[in-house]
Specification:
mainly alpha; 42% helix; flat; Arc Repressor Mutant, subunit A
């Protein structure tokens, strides 16, 4: 079964190869005909060329392959696997036991108000009104600063007195 985002299903893959073999189209042309990428067209062409005559005849070459590895060189030998399975079944431990749950630690106090939790936040100090108050986004900070009266302009942060 093709995955959810697959551009081509088995029938589309067979059509792709038919265009290539019977019509003699290039990979780019055949990919454009079935709305797939040239890379996808090349992949299915290569899959068809490497398939046996029996797979080509049955059409199984166009089906999705399993994602399971074809070989596992680091796999435990079969005899050792059988011995481990037998030992686990004899001891009744097909799965590792679950760890016990830790007790939930609660903090409760005898009288209401003994323990208070307060969120504290420091708010910044604004030296001028912003556009939310003035509604004016057209002026830069420097223009607004220069427009302030002299008595307030010398108290602004970032300026040396």
């Amino acid at each position: 079964m093709a995955h959810a985002n697959a551009r081509l299903g088995p029938a589309g893959r067979r059509e792709l190869v038919r265009l290539m073999i019977e019509m003699g189209m290039s990979e780019r042309q055949e990919a454009a005909c079935v709305s797939a990428s040239p890379c996808t067209a090349h992949r299915w062409k290569r899959r068809w060329l490497t398939a046996s005559v029996e797979l080509r005849r049955s059409g199984r070459w166009a089906l999705d392959r399993s994602s399971r590895p074809r070989r596992s060189p680091g796999r435990t030998p079969a005899e050792l696997e059988r011995r481990v399975w037998a030992a686990r079944e004899r001891n009744g431990c097909s799965r590792a036991p679950r760890l016990p749950r830790t007790a939930f630690v609660r903090y409760e106090w005898p009288c209401p108000g003994d323990l208070l939790h307060m969120d504290v936040k420091r708010y910044p100090r604004f030296t001028r009104e912003g556009h939310a108050v003035t509604g004016d986004r057209s002026k830069t900070y420097a223009e607004k600063r220069d427009a302030l009266p002299i008595s307030r302009a010398h108290n602004l942060p970032g300026q040396d007195s």
